[in-house]
Amino acid sequence: MSPESTPGHAAHPHEIEMPHASLRDYLIGFALSVVLTAIPFWLVMTMPLSAGATAAIIMGFAVVQIVVHMIFFLHMTPKAEGGWSLTSLVFTIIVLGIALAGSLWVMHHLNTNMMPMPHDMNQLP
């Protein structure tokens, strides 16, 4: 017998139950996902805006869709697992941001400090 099933033993008070999603939550998440996919698809197919504006809008929709998936399908809320899943997500985003920014910085400086290629030698004094 496990300790939880023996008479006189209550469940541990620090155990937190995961939030349960209803069919309504899944349908809302699905509908939002479809809309957040259809609008960028329409933007790419019809090109009503400039390429830069379209790219910025699509990236915005992608971020919103990530948040929708985390809330409605992964159930990542501040209440889930005592807030540790959300805390670990924030830490992961910070580490990824540092890694990406550092990589872009290094690549930029490598590009600007490279020796000129042979076709660029003609432009040197």
Describe this entry's structure for a reader:
The chain has 125 residues and is an all-alpha fold. Among the domains are: 54 residues; 33 residues. The protein is 60% helix and 0% strand. The protein is built from 3 helices and no strands. The longest helix has 29 residues. The mean pLDDT is 84. It holds the Pfam family COX4_pro. GO terms for molecular function: cytochrome bo3 ubiquinol oxidase activity; proton transmembrane transporter activity. Keywords: Cell membrane, Electron transport, Membrane, Oxidoreductase, Transmembrane, Transmembrane helix, Transport. One of its GO terms (biological process) is aerobic electron transport chain.
